[in-house]
Amino acid sequence: MDFERLFRADLEKLKEDGNYRVFADLERRAGSFPKAHHHVDGTDTQDVTVWCSNDYLGMGQSAIVTAAMHEAIDKCGAGAGGTRNISGTNHYHVLLERELADLHGKEAALLFTSGYVSNWATLGTLLGRIPDVMVFSDEMNHASMIEGIRHSRARKVIWKHNDLDDLRAKLAAADPDAPKIVAFESVYSMDGDIAPIEAICDIADEFGAMTYLDEVHAVGMYGPRGGGVAEREGIMDRLTIIEGTLGKAFGVMGGYITGSTALIDWIRSFSSGFIFTTALPPTLAAGALASIRHLKKSEMERRRHKDNVAKVRLGLTRAGIPWLDNPSHIVPVMVRDAKKCKWISDILMDQHGVYVQPINYPTVARGAERLRITPTPLHTDADIAHLVASLSSLWSQCALARHVA
Ligand code: PMP
């Protein structure tokens, strides 16, 4: 078999379909977020303002976080030195797991190397080990949940996105004796819509199902202590498992689940995605710990962030640029054309120093292509005005329709 030929043919097809990914070669500069250097063709550099980062609150460059990481690397060195079971558990991991359990009002927490791994490994283990279990998965769930479910080979039922009637009908039609898990997210990252968590828990309770909630895009952002949408709604105790990431609002890297002592001990004991991999470096755990502790007390970042989201939306509305209304912090600017979306993104970067990655199929449906804008508390009014003016001029050049305010 000519493997090279196969690889090249697959890549050509991606390019033809406009789905080939090109990474922006960025250098984030500590202390100057959301500004970054963009390396162009490996030689020139360009100063850009980043408008599509998931470091939603800029904590990845907060002096509080970087100081904690410096201290930890000086104290503990670079790596964890092993898996959690074989010499890799550092005191920072223990403190961080306690902090996360407290954040979500749960008895215990367990760290993974990313949010992806936490979903994949936890769902894979639950569904792989509980006899006859069935999973009820929201159709818009993230790839990490889908892959974990697929890997387990458990019986799966996909329910329509955020559709309570469909969920109830599908649970009612299932084998009443089968153990059941309902898996869903709070904030969905592309449309920015939010699940009716309490109503989903009510339905899950009717059928004795366990609930698994991914709060990856909500932790640090919602709730009085940054515990997510479930904290804001005062319903954290209704969820069997709350999963989150340390890589978005907390600004570092890593993933976790929280739940009862027995559940966490069980996943810790049986999940190969937890057991057979090197633990997170102590520096990352220390940085995440500092970030979480800070955001538990400080409302300032969340307040400024909300203000900036509102300012961006207002600016876009005034310019007649259509954005998808939603109750979260994500501002999807709908282009609805793959080529124009990519073109606008390219010109924004090259000529306006504005970086927004285009989001095309398969991440979103064809015809729903967009620029996913994520304002942060650190964007200035001048940044916002420049973003809106730049988008507005490209909107005209592309002859895209405007909304009349
Ligand atoms: N869940 C959701 C809903 C996500 O959007 C993502 C990443 N974009 C993940 C999980 C994975 O988290 P991480 O980036 O920490 O691997």
Automatic annotation (TrEMBL):
- Could you say which protein family the record assigns here? Belongs to the class-II pyridoxal-phosphate-dependent aminotransferase family.
Q: Cross-referenced Gene3D superfamilies, in alphabetical order?
A: Aspartate Aminotransferase, domain 1, Type I PLP-dependent aspartate aminotransferase-like (Major domain)
Name of this chain's protein = 5-aminolevulinate synthase
Its pathway, per UniProt, is: Porphyrin-containing compound metabolism; protoporphyrin-IX biosynthesis; 5-aminolevulinate from glycine: step 1/1
Q: What GO terms are given for molecular function?
A: 5-aminolevulinate synthase activity; pyridoxal phosphate binding
Cofactor or coenzyme needed: pyridoxal 5'-phosphate
Q: Where is the Aminotransferase class I/classII large domain?
A: 47-391
PANTHER family, alphabetized: 2-AMINO-3-KETOBUTYRATE COENZYME A LIGASE, MITOCHONDRIAL (PTHR13693:SF102), CLASS II AMINOTRANSFERASE/8-AMINO-7-OXONONANOATE SYNTHASE (PTHR13693)
